[in-house]
Amino acid sequence: MSARAKGLMRSFSPLRNFCRLGARQTSHRRAVEEFAAAQHELIREFSGVGCQSSVLRSSGIASVKKLSCVAVSLLPFSRTFASAAVQDESLNSGGLVLEAKPKPMTAESRRTGVVAVKCGMTAVWDKWGTRVPVTVLWIDDNQVVQAKTKEKEGHNALQIGAGQKKAKQLTKPELGHFIASGVPLKRELAEFPVSEDGLLPVGTVLGVRHFVPGQYIDVAGITTGKGFQGGMKRWGFAGMPASHGTSVAHRALGSTGGRQDPGKVFKGKKMAGQMGAKRRTVKNVWVYKIDPARNLMWVRGQIPGHNGNFVELTDAVYKKPDPSTLPFPTFFASPDEDVNSLQPLEVDLGEADPFLADD
User: What average pLDDT does range 41-61 have in this prediction?
Assistant: First the structure.
């Protein structure tokens, strides 16, 4: 181990404890196997108890979710987490058991959103020959990092992480947050409010099939920064006359206030200033196509931000999708499914040619 890694371990006590637990993993392997053999009994016995139980502590399990061994790569180290249906008290609250399984969606249900990367714009032609300008979005390794409940945090929400990041690029509080959750290091974090039946256990993977072609979504992101701009570009003012008589004031703002009364410029007056670089939401964006094999999504129109920026995708508020067509709380793929063999899914445009509808 390098001197740099040793120094990091000495300076960061949670990481040092994390390594000690990994070193003791061999001695606890037998206890973990016995714990796995008694899966159903433990689920019934500890369904309402956090992982502070002496049985779980004796098994060397610090964070448990499902009863399957999941290898999670964190930092230069790798540790196998044995997990159960019991949720860690630090990740969820009050003994609430969160299960990753399909549920019926009601009118009051609210699903989580996902974090996507804006790849750029292009154009496609549908089967009727209509040109559709689209933006390509990439759902990059979305995973539930934290589940917040009303009993503990005061509201129901899911914290979603996206992308990958190295340990040296994170602060120590961020690093400890990911270690406590038991998920890989993420580049972007976003929180989405959900209903109680829309909560998901920590570690659940979200893909592009969380949405269906044809539905409407809301896209939120940081707009492209334009710097300091004048009134014509920033607010669309017409400017001064371009004919004779106007001297060095063709793009001037014009009057900004009165005389002695009111004797000031009112707050909120549209004037020159910084333009862009603000959070904006584009509503009712139409999902044209999804590609499950590559986790790509094509949506109609433009969305805010530069190429490569993160954006947040949620179900549309105004044009609500049909609950019967959406996977709730998210899409769960079968374990034996070959994702690479899946074909892209396009929206169903019907059998009536829109160009011959009037005939």
Answer: 40
